[in-house]
Amino acid sequence: MTTTGPPIAPPLGSRDAAHRYIRRICFKTGPPDVVGAELEWLVADPAHPNDPVPLDRLQDAFRETATLPGGSTLTFEPGGQLELSSPPATGLASCRRTLDADLTHVDDALSRLGLTLLTTAIDPHRPPRRQLREPRYDAMEAYYDRRGTVGRTMMCSTAAVQVNLDAGVDAADVVRRWQALNTLGPVLVAAFANSPRHAGRLTGWKSSRQAVWLRLDPPRTSRPVPGVDPATGWADYALDAPVMLMRRDSGDWITDPGITFRQWLDAGSAAYRPPTEDDLAYHLTTLFPPVRPRAWFEVRYVDAQPRPWWPVPVALLVGLLADAATAERATAAALPVADAWETAARCALTDPALGLAARRCFTLGIESLRRVRAGPDLVALVEAYAERYVDRGRCPADDAIPTTRGESG
Hints:
- The chain is α+β, with helices and mostly antiparallel strands.
- It has one domain (26-226, 287-393): Creatine Kinase, Chain A, domain 2, CATH 3.30.590.20.
- Helices cover 42% and strands 12% of the residues.
- The chain has 16 helices and 13 strands.
- It has helices spanning 15-26, 55-61, 92-111, 135-145, 150-157, 171-183, 185-191, 208-216, 230-240, 261-266, 277-284, 311-320, 324-334, 341-347, 352-371, 376-388; strands at 34-41, 43-44, 73-76, 82-85, 89-90, 116-117, 160-166, 197-198, 201-202, 245-246, 254-255, 291-293, 296-303.
- The strands form 4 sheets. Strands 1, 3, 4, 5, 7, 12 and 13 form a 7-stranded antiparallel β-sheet that branches. Strands 2-6 form a two-stranded antiparallel sheet. A two-stranded antiparallel sheet has the order 8-9.
- α6 packs parallel to α13, α13 runs antiparallel to α15 and α15 (352-371) packs antiparallel against α16 (376-388).
- The longest helix has 20 residues, at 92-111.
């Protein structure tokens, strides 16, 4: 008999218990003043762009850095991507100062080793190669390998700007912000598409990173959480998703047991002990919808941006959600293309409907940022991005795509 070891807590017990846990833990209300961002970066040696940078070399570069000057947390993703996670900040300006200071520190440390941060959201030169060895990533790789080849690309070759925003001041505000963030997804995928080339070839997608997520594992990655009530929708989404892994205190973790969390909870099995709240909490960390509730809302659909543009998606989302009227207008502007995830990833703003929605959303966001006094330099940066890209039906991916004929993906 296979076992995951003795329960570390009482069994969760029922679907209702799971729904209550998710509502309590994942949807907390309060004044929506806190902003955070997680910046992922691919790292390369410009002298040898096709070679992976050994993870131990990267770790050595920061081994003496206990705390970054701005207070961000520095970690590494499975392929050696570097991630900076800002502490929760009150307001946009504070978040930007923190990450700018820490990015400068990272740049200095890497430059001493002859390394640089790439300015794209998927590795343009190298195929995926996992370097970080941990039980979670061993199990994740095995799970995705049974479903195709894109899992390793996601784990090892992609990078994003993740934007963290408070859920809302009350239940109605939570619903409004949740609907806005999910409806805006295709517009922002298109406006910030920045991954047209992977492993030495053009892919035919403006956001190859988003294309990977669309193909990866539909029950847990490719589409927004459905339903009017976000807490109910997220609980059902989680219960219906396949269990990726079961942890054990000793021995290899169990990968892909072939059941959903609902089946594990409802029927149990002679092979597996009943799930606990801790099991449900960990299961939630293996789900990757475009917007993930974690007591705050984690927006996951924006490609990593070239400098100096990384603050733009953060600022735009803050502006669009700054008040109920703006959020509702932005949602209305994006609603005609709310399901256009694939078109956004492939065509970006060359699609007329996405281009129109993006221009409207940038106009709304800029007006809102002025009202909330986000700071003239930040407003100017968003305006400059709009002028360079959005108003012209372009995105950063277009900077990397040859304008002459003769190269195709």
